[in-house]
Amino acid sequence: MDKKVVALKYEEDGTSAPKVVAKGQGVIAKKIMEKAKEFDVPIFQNKALAESLLSLDAGEQIPPNLYKAVAEVFVWLMKSEKKAQMSRPKN
């Protein structure tokens, strides 16, 4: 079964919904994952959400019916970033 990946971006100014910045399946998905790991981008796995987001074009904002699911991803991301900051040694 092919891996499916969707990358999202959210501007913290809150003026617009998150956007799809990259998406792909198979080889393309693998390359997106490699880039994410290379730049320490956290990876959240949710097959159903990825399937829903794959129908969107790159640059397209997520539709309102996906706000709640995507908000859960961003809450997870914020918690992950806080944990990472707490575990870093202080200079």
Keywords for this entry:
single chain, 91 residues, alpha+beta, name from scop, 3 helices
Architecture overview:
The chain has 91 residues and is of the alpha+beta class. It has one domain: name from scop (3-Layer(aba) Sandwich), CATH 3.40.1690.10. It has a two-stranded antiparallel ribbon with strand order 1-2. The longest helix is centred in the C-terminal third of the chain and has 21 residues.
How much helical structure, as a percent, in the residues? 40-55%
CATH-scheme architecture: 3-Layer(aba) Sandwich
Report the top-level CATH class: Alpha Beta
Ranges with pLDDT <50 over ≥5 residues?
A: none
Mean pLDDT: 87
What number of domains? Answer: 1
Taken in chain order, the helices and strands follow as EEHHH
- Supply the helix-strand structural class: alpha+beta
Note the topology.
Elements: E1 4-9, E2 19-25, H1 27-38, H2 47-54, H3 67-87
In short:
By secondary structure, the chain is an alpha+beta fold. The protein contains three helices and two strands.
